[in-house]
């Protein structure tokens, strides 16, 4: 909690017929009940409230007309009778209130006073403070996917989000998409981005993916960077992106805010939060395929996605159905994974610490990465195989997952890689080697419990800056010869594989699940671009444990 700082305004005002000392500084609005007895009363409601000015949504004058007061939004409210006959002027402050499980709500408090000039002074002072905050957006470009999740995107935006934007004085230009990639192409080619302070998408991870593809591409073109290059450093996007969750998994929203609640996301946009985010570029044979910010998954998650796309009519439940089906199918895939470990950074995928609001690991590693990328531009060979830092793993895998953030979502509140960071310039490469169904189930179930999903012999996890995957059937002849030699050795000593008999029914390839979109190529080269984009979010807030002494109400 912040200290109040120099006071801008202090008055005695009334809240629901009780007298309060109200003060405003640049950082805090505080209202403290005047009490005749200094004796502590355990059953009396809280007597001191404080709200950071940065979390005030707006201030509204209540105008008097025929004994009642009319709000400046046109709705009527009887204040005079309720608040005492001598109180004639009133204003209402709307502010962020924290609820359970990282949810935010819009709360309000109405102050009344007998002097009109005092009331006016309060309203204009609060408005001045809000206007001086340059991080708040004034004009937003909004894309709604009416087709994602339970097809509620339009209703969610109109009923829950638009009224809050109006209250906060944010102007919007709204586009309801008419086809897949409508938002991406509009951002790439048409949108007048200079007019806006941010872009908002209403939908799931697929819709967010459309937005970043449009925005990153447009930024590179504007900055003269080749967006298809595997080696060039990409230019960061200046416009922030807001996510109003209305999809099936909503992992990107959940992992960066702590909940998938549209009102909470709208409030983070209004207060002008900013959270940098890593982005992976995915290439095949030097050809750009896609960007990814959450999960790049081959094997299990690729198969779940391919199977579920044919069952869109089921809505979000399609993932549960296909998840169960693919678990029972139990396919494994052969191939080679090579990766460049993230060196010199703080943190490992097995840490107990979590990426939270104001994360110091993201700050430290982000700084390190930007120094490195400057050096990299001077010495282009530093990331290359010739540096000898690459490591290679060949094998049979049930899943190969790269989690650039925790990938927490309502199905798995701690996520695929609980210690992954939003903005540390790395991705956690999780290799699930071929194992029994029972063991794979143990691993999956640990995504939903407190147990460590990596503490199993068939799992490896590495924090990396870059990785490549080559399915076995694309490998060179010399690699295949090596495999054949290894296989013949193994068959002598190991039991015959019961999962996939020699009939050849097992597929040789899976596909990649790239933030919920299917990739058409299996051999890929992935590179992390640290903090390439920014969200209207602040990372998951640490839950308060106890009131500390810096609480201004305790002073
Ligand atoms: C037997 C108990 C099994 C429990 C396993 C739970 C593990 C769930 C981890 C989910 C990670 C999700 C990572 C996010 C992926 C999304 O980007 C993607 C698309 O989202 P959207 O556009 O909103 O539809 N969602 C998926 O790929 C769904 C994976 C579900 C797997 C069961
Ligand atoms: N108007 C539209 N009609 C059909 N598909 C769309 C439309 N707008 C966006 N899409 C596509 O819908 C897909 C799913 O969107 P998303 O919002 O992620 O929902 P979900 O979470 O249910 O998958 C994305 O691939 C996106 O490109
Ligand atoms: Ca990361």
TrEMBL record:
Gene Ontology molecular functions: ceramide kinase activity
Which InterPro entries did the record assign?
ATP-NAD_kinase_N, CERK_C, CERK_PH, Diacylglycerol_kinase_cat_dom, Lipid_Phosphate_FormReg, NAD/diacylglycerol_kinase_sf
Please name the SMART domains in this protein's record: DAGKc (SM00046)
Out of the domains of life, which is the source?
A: Eukaryota
CC per GO annotation: membrane
DAGKc domain sequence ranges: 135-286
Among the record's GO biological process terms, what is one? Answer: ceramide metabolic process
Classification via SUPFAM superfamilies: NAD kinase/diacylglycerol kinase-like
Q: Check the record and name the PANTHER family matching this protein.
A: CERAMIDE KINASE, SPHINGOSINE KINASE
Provide the protein name. Answer: Ceramide kinase
Taxonomy of origin reads:
Eukaryota, Metazoa, Chordata, Craniata, Vertebrata
């Amino acid at each position: 909690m912040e200290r109040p700082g120099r006071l801008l305004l202090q008055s005695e005002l009334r809240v629901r017929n009780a007298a309060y000392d109200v003060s405003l500084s640049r950082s805090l609005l505080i209202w403290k009940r005047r009490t005749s007895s200094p004796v502590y009363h355990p059953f009396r409601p809280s007597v001191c409230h404080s709200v950071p000015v940065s979390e005030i949504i707006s201030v509204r004058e209540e105008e008097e007309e025929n004994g009642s007061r009319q709000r400046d939004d046109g709705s009527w409210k009887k204040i005079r009778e309720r608040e005492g006959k001598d109180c004639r002027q009133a204003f209402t402050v709307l502010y962020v209130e924290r609820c359970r499980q990282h949810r935010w709500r819009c709360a309000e408090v109405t102050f009344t006073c007998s002097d009109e000039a005092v009331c006016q002074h309060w309203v204009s002072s609060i408005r001045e403070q809000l206007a001086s905050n340059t991080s708040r957006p004034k004009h937003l470009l909004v894309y709604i996917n009416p087709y994602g999740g339970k097809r509620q995107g339009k209703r969610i935006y109109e009923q829950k989000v638009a009224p809050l934007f109006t209250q906060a004085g944010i102007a919007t230009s709204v586009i309801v998409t008419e086809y897949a990639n409508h938002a991406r192409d509009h951002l790439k080619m048409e949108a007048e981005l200079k007019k806006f302070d941010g872009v908002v998408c209403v939908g799931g991870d697929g819709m967010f993916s459309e937005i970043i593809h449009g925005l990153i591409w447009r930024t590179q073109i504007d900055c003269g960077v080749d967006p298809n290059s595997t080696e060039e450093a990409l230019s960061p996007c200046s416009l922030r992106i807001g996510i109003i969750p209305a999809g099936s998994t909503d992992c990107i929203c959940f992992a960066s805010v702590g909940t998938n609640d549209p009102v909470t996301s709208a409030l983070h946009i209004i207060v002008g939060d900013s959270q940098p985010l890593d982005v992976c570029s995915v290439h095949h044979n030097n050809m750009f395929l896609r960007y990814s910010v959450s999960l790049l998954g081959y094997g299990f998650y690729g198969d779940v996605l391919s199977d579920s796309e044919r069952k869109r009519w089921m809505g979000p439940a399609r993932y549960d159905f296909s998840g169960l089906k693919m678990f029972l199918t139990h396919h494994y895939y052969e191939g080679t994974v090579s990766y460049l470990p993230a060196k010199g950074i703080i943190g490992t995928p097995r840490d107990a610490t979590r990426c939270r609001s104001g994360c110091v690991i993201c700050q430290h590693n982000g700084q390190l990465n930007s120094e490195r990328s400057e050096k990299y531009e001077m010495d282009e060979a530093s990331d290359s195989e010739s540096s000898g830092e690459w490591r290679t793993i060949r094998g049979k895998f049930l899943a190969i997952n790269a989690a650039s953030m925790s990938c927490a979502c309502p199905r798995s509140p701690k996520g695929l890689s609980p210690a992954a960071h939003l903005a540390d310039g790395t991705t956690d490469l999780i290799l699930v080697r071929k194992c029994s169904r029972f063991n794979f189930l143990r691993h999956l179930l640990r995504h939903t419990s407190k147990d460590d999903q990596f503490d199993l012999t068939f799992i490896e996890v590495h924090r990396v800056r870059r990785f490549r995957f080559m399915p076995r059937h694309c490998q060179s002849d010399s690699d295949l010869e090596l495999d054949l030699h290894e296989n013949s050795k193994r068959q002598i000593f190991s039991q015959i594989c019961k999962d996939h008999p020699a009939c050849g029914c097992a597929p040789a390839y899976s596909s990649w699940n790239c933030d919920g979109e299917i990739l058409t190529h299996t051999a890929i080269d992935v590179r992390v671009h640290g903090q390439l984009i920014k969200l209207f979010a602040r990372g998951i807030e640490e839950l308060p444990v106890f009131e500390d002494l810096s609480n201004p109400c305790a002073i």
